[in-house]
Amino acid sequence: MTVSRPGGERIGAGAAAAVVAEVRAAGGTVVATGGCFDLLHAGHVATLEAARQLGDCLVVCLNSDASVAGLKGPDRPVVPHGDRSRLLAALSCVDAVMIFDEPTPDAALTWLRPDVWVKGGDYATGGGEPALPEAELLRRWGGHTVVVPYLNGRSTTDMIAAARADGVGGRRTGAGVDGVTRGAR
C-alpha cells in the first residue's frame, strides 16, 4: 500500500492522523515506533526500515526537546526536535512523525492506537513477547509489540561521549554499516 501525503506534510498530529485514517480505511496495518532519535544513525535507520516492513505505514512518535532533556539530562538533545522530525520525515520508510512532550509515548499511543509498536533489539529480553513497557497498553485495543534486530555498536549516547572525548573536530574510526573498519582521513 502506498500512503498519500497531501501537500507533502509528514510532521505533526494532523499528518499522523491522516496517514492512520487512510491506512485503516483500506484495512491496512498501522505500525508505530518511538524514541529520541538524537543524532540519527545507521542503527536508527535499520530499526525504522524493519518496522515499516511490518505494516502499511510507519508513524514515528518523537520525544520533544523537553522530554529528551527529562530522560537524558540537561545537555540533551544535541539536535532540536524540529530538525530531528525533518530528518525522520525525509526517510522513505517513515510516513509521519508526531512529537510528544511526555516522558513516555503512552498518550500518543492511546491516541494513535497502532496495531504494532516496534522497538530496536536493544530492548530484547531473550524471552517470548518483548518486555516493553508499552505492551500492556497496546493489548487494550488488540495491538502487540515487536522487537526488531539491533545493529550492534550504534548508540547516540556513545557517539556523544566519543565526540566529547575526542574534542571538537576529532574523527573516530570504527566499523561501518558493512562491518569494514575505516580509519581517519
TrEMBL record:
Residues 33-126 form the Cytidyltransferase-like domain. Pfam families: CTP_transf_like. Keywords: Nucleotidyltransferase, Transferase. GO terms for molecular function: nucleotidyltransferase activity. NCBIfam families: cyt_tran_rel. This is RfaE bifunctional protein nucleotidyltransferase chain/domain. It comes from Micromonospora olivasterospora. The lineage of its organism: Bacteria, Bacillati, Actinomycetota, Actinomycetes, Micromonosporales.
